[in-house]
Write a structure and sequence with these properties.
Elements (H helix, E strand, L loop, with lengths): L3 H8 L5 H13 L2 H18 L3 H12 L3 H9 L23 H20 L3 H24 L5 H31 L1
Helix pairs in contact: 2-7, 3-4, 3-6, 4-6, 6-7, 6-8, 7-8
């Protein structure tokens, strides 16, 4: 995208080891293995223990749908940033668009935001969980640009693909649950 370099350089300013370390931590939180896998397994287990197998299924499938990302990357075949355009703080292999971290964050934390009001009776706590989930989603995406492993358009695409998929999955899930109640 025409503005990718300018936006990436703005995200990478100022040069700071502390900010880069925070970006690495956020990137690790957004990694599929081990972070998202462990968080998804914990979330699914807690939902099952709470008697919400339906929501456990919703969260588990949403997290697993991250597997679509590599297929999209191959189909789109967009390169990652290069050292002549931005500072490369971390090394990443493969293709760039869509960002798997951003897409995975949108899927997992988007699902968590949908689930929170259904399992947390206190509205303030449920809303706080939703805000935290959305904040993590955005920060994970920004961290990938800060580290120089993705263009802003890569993370925007990852967020949009992930949110579109989780919204579609939510609609399908509601239809399934509605049909299940009729039988």
């Amino acid at each position: 995208m025409p503005s990718d370099i300018a936006i990436a350089r703005a995200v990478q300013w100022p040069a700071s080891g502390t900010i880069d370390t925070a970006a690495r931590v956020l990137s690790l939180i957004g990694a599929d293995i081990p972070s998202t896998l462990v968080l998804a397994l914990i979330g699914v287990a807690l939902l099952i223990l709470a008697g919400r197998r339906d929501l456990a299924l919703f969260l588990g499938v949403a997290a697993a749908l991250r597997a679509i990302g590599p297929v999209l990357k191959v189909l789109i075949a967009s390169p990652r940033p290069t050292v002549d355009a931005v500072v490369i703080v971390a090394k990443a292999d493969g293709l760039g668009f869509p960002s798997g971290h951003a897409m995975g964050a949108a899927l997992f934390y988007g699902a968590l935001a949908i689930i929170a009001p259904q399992v947390v009776a206190n509205r303030v706590v449920a809303r706080s969980i939703q805000i935290a989930a959305m904040t993590l989603m955005v920060l994970i995406a920004i961290s990938r640009v800060r580290l120089g492993v993705h263009w802003p358009s890569d993370v925007a695409g990852g967020l949009l693909f992930g949110l579109a998929i989780v919204c579609f999955w939510q609609a399908a899930f509601l239809q399934w649950r509605k049909a299940r109640l009729k039988t």
